[in-house]
Specification:
- This protein is of the alpha+beta class.
- The protein contains four helices and two strands.
- A two-stranded parallel ribbon has the order 1-2.
- Strand 1, helix 2 and strand 2 form a beta-alpha-beta unit.
- The longest helix is centred in the last third of the chain and has 15 residues.
- The termini are far apart.
């Protein structure tokens, strides 16, 4: 879903904790980090993490760091 298509008034986007992860702006040549960060402004409970030393594919290039970030986020929001 593109940011332009996101209905910021939809309740689901306002109540679910959301993790937005990007690589470094100079290394991500697939999706501009500034565009991805736009979700943080639209989703009330969004948290943003930038993975250092990686571009768009942080899951593949920094798997341990990515897993740690996601694990910490899930533990922080598990009820």
């Amino acid at each position: 879903m593109l940011i332009s298509e996101l209905d910021a008034h939809t309740s689901l986007w306002q109540v679910i904790a959301t993790l937005v992860v990007t690589g470094e702006p100079d290394l991500d040549r697939v999706v501009p980090v500034s565009s991805t960060r736009g979700y943080v402004a639209l989703i009330r409970r969004a948290e943003y993490v930038m993975l250092e030393r990686t571009g768009h594919m942080g899951l593949l290039t920094r798997p341990s760091t990515f897993a740690e970030v996601v694990t910490d986020f899930v533990h922080a929001h598990h009820h």
